[in-house]
């Protein structure tokens, strides 16, 4: 180490002068550090100048680059599509912008004042990853593996009854016409996207599942319904929802941990749709924990938008089942989640902001290198 500079030594002496036992005050420590750094900068003048010039030079370069890129992005190709339409039927046309006049590239920047209402779905594991009970795995071959729903609670009778109430078992063929979607347990194996404007399960080709306690026929039906005045036709397949009693929350945790997909291929994976812990629920008190797989959130170290989790239907289904348990199933009293809907959105522009991308790196260069702490 270099010998201490005069100023720092003086500061250290001044700080230590008050008595060997008393630590130097914060102010004198800061003072000493600042002086040490200043002298350090004075001795390395060239390096310091370079240290300041390089970020400034880069800043200028980046801001020029940002302008150029943003100018390129400021083309109609990346803006909400517009068209001149005759709104009133008579007279000159008006320029109207909106999703209906946009290409796929343009749609992302359109305003959405009234987002569509989508039915809330359950997250069901992929067919080939579902937890199986029999070791022979025959259900995987016949593609009829049930979706396991482990549950636990202090009172097994009560928990089992509530779980059985979750399913409404009308035949699939009854679903096809004018079905009230919120009353049935619909699920999908597609992960959620980062916004709720579009439910990927409804626009993709994969079927939507309906969870029932028993699947009478393997066949699928086509569900016709209207979502926001748009007629939707969707293939619906039955999946058996299989409530599995477990004697403790710990057992559920261990089982789902063992069935996790990490570093396993095919056989060992056993994923569950959801799980419930009824804790100390009784006729007067409803105290449930709804467990879900949060991996679908896609949390990573790189800043990325989170995936939306499909938890609301799972919570609603168990609450509704408890209500049925209290009221008796014939009562017809229901508490159903009708739809989920994204917040309205303004028109946005596609821009690139370098400062938010590399701001921390610049801070590191300029501040931390100019004032090294040790
Ligand atoms: C169309 O009708 C609306 C109100 O009905 C009016 O404000 C608007 O000016 C009309 N536009 C044209 C092009 O006539
Ligand atoms: C469990 O719940 C059932 C149904 O509500 C009730 O009859 C029974 O007494 C409860 N058992 C205990 C141990 O609380
Ligand atoms: C299915 O629909 C038919 C005719 O609409 C009706 O008679 C029958 O009760 C329904 N079944 C169930 C289980 O809802
Ligand atoms: C379904 O709805 C349409 C229009 O709302 C109606 O014309 C039709 O009769 C309904 N079908 C049934 C089976 O209720
Ligand atoms: C819970 O179940 C597991 C496995 O099924 C068993 O090993 C354990 O002894 C049970 N615990 C209690 C308290 O019953
Ligand atoms: C949770 O979801 C992820 C992603 O689909 C999957 O890899 C993992 O096996 C699932 N875990 C359980 C316990 O279902
Ligand atoms: C999350 O990860 C899955 C699987 O890698 C992917 O299909 C999905 O699009 C991702 N979701 C988001 C919001 O990035």
Automatic annotation (TrEMBL):
<protein>
    <recommendedName>
        <fullName>ABC transporter A family member</fullName>
    </recommendedName>
</protein>
<dbReference type="GO" id="GO:0140359">
    <property type="term" value="F:ABC-type transporter activity"/>
</dbReference>
<keyword id="KW-1133">Transmembrane helix</keyword>
<feature type="transmembrane region" description="Helical">
    <location>
        <begin position="51"/>
        <end position="69"/>
    </location>
</feature>
<dbReference type="GO" id="GO:0005319">
    <property type="term" value="F:lipid transporter activity"/>
</dbReference>
<dbReference type="InterPro" id="IPR026082">
    <property type="entry name" value="ABCA"/>
</dbReference>
<keyword id="KW-0472">Membrane</keyword>
<dbReference type="GO" id="GO:0016020">
    <property type="term" value="C:membrane"/>
</dbReference>
<keyword id="KW-0812">Transmembrane</keyword>
